[in-house]
Structure formats: C-alpha cells, structure tokens
Design a protein that fits this description.
The chain is an alpha+beta fold and 169 residues long. 37% of the residues lie in helices and 24% in strands. It is built from seven helices and eight strands. It has helices at residues 12-19, 41-46, 66-74, 102-118, 145-148, 150-156, 158-168; strands at 2-8, 24-32, 52-59, 84-85, 88-89, 95-99, 128-131, 135-137. A six-stranded mixed sheet has the order 7-6-1-3-2-8. A hairpin with a 2-residue loop joins strand 4 (84-85) and strand 5 (88-89). 37% of the residues are buried.
C-alpha cells in the first residue's frame, strides 16, 4: 500500500470523491503541515497551528495509480484559489498536493503543468505541491462526514458541486 495526502478545502467534502474507487483502502480526514502536535479541529480552524485540513488516502498502486488520484483531486477543487476553497477561506483550507517521494512529486508537477497548459482555467493554477509531513487524524465526528450527516454535507458541498459541474461537466 502507498499513501497520498491532498488538501482541497474542507476535508468533509474531500472524502467522498475518493471513497468509492477500487484500490483505495481508506480515506481519513485530518490535519497536516503545521507546527502543533496532535491539533484539534478548533485549533486548526483558528488558523494558529499552521495546519491544513487534508485527506490521507491509503491505496494499492496495482489497482489505482497516484496519477489517477491526482486527476480525481483536480476535479474536486478550484486550483486557481490559493486562499481557500468555496465556502471555506484561510490558509487551513488551501489547495495542496503533498508528496512522499520523487515519483509522486514528478507526477503531481506534470499533472499541474498539463492542467495549466490545457487552458481550462483563465486564472493561473496556484495549487502547491509540497513534501508530506506529519498527518494527524481528525476527531471521529469528522470521519466519513458525508455518510453520517448527509443533509449538512450536501449544504456545505453545494458551491463545490456547482463549480465541478461548470468546469468538469
């Protein structure tokens, strides 16, 4: 198994798109990239810990490649907004592809360049690609949020859903 970590706004909305693909063992909501060990949701939400809300994906590379995960990722985020995603603004919601090795870094950079070259977006692609650091799982009430709170999830995901429809069809 391999790991991938993606940040694309509220982690509640980033689980479902990955959750049903063959080869994905698990998708866990959590926090990464900050300077506080074991931060809480409230601490991260305050913006004081330096963490970004993210999802950690454990996957079987024989069934789904990292490059495929990156393509799924692009279709869930606004890669032109460096200061948050949809309803959520702030550095703790910024879009980031985290990499664990040179191959993941190269694949993410190649994919980002291809997206930029495609002309699909008028604004520059600002999603960053950064080395992975410690990942702290979020509290249990934030795991599989879309399954446990479907009405609230749908409300929180509405702007994202509209954006996806407009740009990805």
């Amino acid at each position: 198994m391999e790991r991938a970590i993606f940040a694309g706004g509220c982690f509640w909305c980033m689980v479902k798109p990955f959750d049903s693909h063959p080869g994905i063992e698990s998708v866990l909501s959590g926090y990464t990239g900050g300077h506080t060990e074991n931060p809480t949701y409230e601490e991260v939400k305050s913006g004081d810990t330096g963490h970004t809300e993210a999802v950690e994906i454990i996957f079987d590379p024989n069934l789904i490649r990292f490059e495929e995960l990156v393509e799924i990722y692009w279709q869930q985020t606004d890669p032109t907004d460096a200061f948050g995603q949809f309803e959520d603004c702030g550095s703790n919601y910024r879009p980031v592809i985290f990499y664990f090795d040179a191959q993941q870094k190269a694949a993410a950079e190649k994919s980002r360049q291809a997206l930029a070259d495609s002309g699909q977006f008028k604004e520059p692609i600002v999603t960053t690609i950064e080395p992975a650091s410690a990942f702290y799982p979020a509290e249990e009430e934030h795991q599989d949020y879309y399954k446990h709170h479907p009405e609230n999830y749908a409300k929180n995901a509405e702007r994202r859903k509209q954006f996806i429809q407009e740009y990805w069809g």
